[in-house]
Design brief:
Largest sheet: 7 strands, mixed, barrel
Number of strands: 11
Structural class: mainly beta
Number of domains: 1
Order of helices and strands: EEEEEHEEEHHEEE
CATH architecture: Beta Barrel
Number of helices: 3
Length: 146
């Protein structure tokens, strides 16, 4: 049985204690979050933030140039995941995650550019929780997991 591939992983990031964003080639996902991420174990329903390249493209079209990772994502993808419903399960690498909620707009976006919160309303990212531990790498396919 073939799985429907939605897209792939473009880049991966973790948040460090000093609020530095660190780019990674691979992430280890555990039930309580992303290993090495400062938010691991804090709120499992918000343990992974997925952002689309589309969000960066929207900002660029409005003259706002932001660096990949600045939206706070753990996983940057090359498709639009924002229409996925809560409860949707995705397989990425050897891990399975479940969409839990849309990302709220955080005040840090207005520190980048005061137009960014309004521009990216409902398009900043989606949160997911880990259902099955695993490894996610740059280039991995992302597919629906029934």
């Amino acid at each position: 049985m073939s799985k429907k591939v939605l897209g792939s992983v473009v880049e991966l990031f973790v948040s460090k204690e000093d609020k530095i964003r660190e780019q990674k080639e691979a992430l280890t996902l555990e039930l309580d979050g992303v290993c090495e991420d400062r938010f691991k174990g804090k709120d499992i329903t918000r343990s992974i933030l997925i952002v689309s390249l589309k969000s960066y493209e929207m900002a660029k079209q409005k003259g706002i140039d932001i660096t990949k990772g600045e939206l706070g994502e753990n996983i940057l993808v090359d498709f639009d995941p924002y229409a996925l419903e809560g409860g949707t399960k995705l397989r990425i690498g050897s891990a399975v995650i479940e969409i839990s909620q849309r990302s709220s707009l955080c005040s840090s976006l207005s520190k980048i550019n005061n137009k960014l919160p309004k521009l990216l309303k409902d398009k900043r990212g989606i949160f997911a929780k880990v259902i099955c531990d695993g490894q996610v790498s740059v280039g991995d396919d992302i597919s629906l997991n029934s």
